Write a sequence for this structure.
């Protein structure tokens, strides 16, 4: 069984920065895609950024130019550097991974970490 664990959320002022981290743990798997989604109160979950094992990245329109996704394949980790944060970035941020196991490929989600942007 694969588990995802996020860290790094918190309260930050507008214009500030935060860095989120996520680690995938378990055994006998390979990561195809890893990244971040977010969900604000009353809104649907939306793409923040993803990164594939081949190095391709994809960003949601609202975070392009402000957020950067990176990863450490050897450690099964993904990071999200968030700069120039805005109040509208306030949401629960979920780590996501598409993982190939011994018998199947499946999507996994972390528990989520709260990011609040407020003065």
């Amino acid at each position: 069984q694969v588990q995802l664990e996020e860290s790094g959320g918190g309260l930050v002022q507008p214009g500030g920065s935060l860095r989120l981290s996520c680690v995938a743990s378990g055994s006998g798997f390979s990561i195809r895609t890893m990244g971040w989604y977010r969900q604000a109160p009353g809104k649907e979950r939306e793409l923040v950024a993803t990164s594939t094992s081949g190095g391709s990245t994809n960003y949601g329109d609202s975070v392009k130019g402000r957020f950067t996704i990176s990863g450490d394949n050897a450690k099964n980790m993904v990071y999200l550097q968030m700069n120039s944060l805005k109040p509208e970035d306030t949401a629960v941020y979920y780590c996501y991974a598409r993982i190939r196991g011994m018998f199947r490929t499946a999507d996994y989600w972390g528990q989520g970490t709260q990011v609040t942007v407020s003065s």
Notes: The radius of gyration is 14 Å. DSSP finds no helices and eleven strands in the chain.
